[in-house]
Structures are given as structure tokens and as C-alpha cells.
């Protein structure tokens, strides 16, 4: 009998150890271990999140950069377009250039007969201002004329400094000797080069705007 009790006890013990043990944190009798599995899951989740965040932030950055580039290109085109010369601007420049040139010519024709130093200096100063203003008119006309006005434009640019230098000299030294010397130097540069080139450049700009080529022809100074 005792032997039978021992067998029953052993059988019961064997059966109890074979049953699954349900512990806290288990699901359906399967133990979820908190070590590597948890850390690996959370690690993978974190990595995935970081990856998605990284890829998500990269796309907007690329798009913004492309938009900036497109805006810069559009801005450049708009700026280039804003520099185009209109027919009205050409007409105004032709008129302004002629007015300035006539002012300088009138001064050069009158200066040799003048004796009062203050008057000489004042008139030379007036001519200097007009000659200086010619450059703004020239730039408008050359922008309109393009290659058709290159030769005339080059002659004006090359010879204008001699005119300005001579007028400046008469402003600072308004003696009769200074006037005689500087007027001659100015006319040598201006008569054959600048005066006909003003007409040529003006007509080239007018032609480019499909306007009548009616630019003034300027007589040489010093012959009156």
C-alpha cells in the first residue's frame, strides 16, 4: 500500500511539472521575455521611426531648394526683361542727346570770343554738365541699337574724355590762352568723331524701334 501511495504521488508530481506555467507578462501561456526581444523590437521601431523621419524631412528640403532655384531663374528673366528699351525712351534719348550736343557746340563757338574769366568758367561749366549728361542718353540709344550702333558708340566713348578734360581745364584756368588751346583740342576730337556718331547712333536706335530716322545732323564748331 505504501508503495502504491508513492507511485500516485510521483505520478501527480510528474503531471504538475508538465503543465504550462502562466506568469505575469505571458500571453496565451507563452512567456514574453523582456530582454532582447523587447529591446530589439523597440530598437527596430526607433530605427524605423528615425528612418521615416529622415526620409520625410529630406523630401521637403529638396522641394524648397528647387523652388528657390526656379524663383531665381524667373527673377533673372524678369530683370533682363526690365532692361529692354522702349520706343518712348529712345525718342527721349535722341532729343536729350541733341539738346546736350547743341549746348556744347554753342559754348565752343562762343568761348574763343570771351574775355571775362568768370563768364568763361561759367560757360565752360555749363558745357561740361551737358557733355556729362550725354552719356546717359548714349547708353539708352546703344541699348536699343545693338550691334548696328557699335561703331558710332565706340567713337563717342573713345573721344568724350578729351572733351570733358578740355572743358574742365577752361573751368579751372579761364584764360584766353587756355580757351584757345583747349577749344582746338576739343574740336579735333569732337567734330570728326562725336558729332556724326551722335546722328548715326540715334538713327540706328530709331530704326531698331521702327521709327523714322530723323536724328539731327550737327555742324562742326569753330567755323562760324
From TrEMBL:
Keyword annotations from UniProtKB, A to Z: Signal
Region (Disordered): 37-60
Organism per entry: Botrytis paeoniae
Ranges of compositional bias, category Low complexity: 37-58
Cleavable signal peptide: 1-18
Name of the protein described by the UniProt record: Ppe family protein
